[in-house]
Structure to design on (53 residues):
C-alpha cells in the first residue's frame, strides 16, 4: 500500500497491471464471502435487484 495519495489515473494504471485471471479470482472470492456473510433476507434482496436489471 502506498503512503502517498494517488490520483485517479495512477490508481487506474496500478489496477490495470493485475491480470484478468487475478481480477476474476478476486471477484469470485468476494462473491463467496458476501454469500457467507449475508442473511437470508439480504440474499433475497440481491436476487430481486438482479432480476430488475
Amino acid at each position: 500500500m502506498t503512503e502517498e495519495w494517488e490520483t485517479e489515473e495512477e490508481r487506474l494504471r496500478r489496477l490495470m497491471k493485475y491480470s484478468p485471471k487475478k481480477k476474476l479470482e478476486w471477484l469470485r472470492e468476494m462473491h463467496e464471502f458476501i454469500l457467507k456473510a449475508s442473511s437470508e433476507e439480504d440474499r433475497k434482496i440481491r436476487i430481486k435487484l438482479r432480476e430488475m436489471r
Q: What stands out?
A: Helices lie at 8-16, 20-37, 40-52. The longest helix spans residues 20-37.
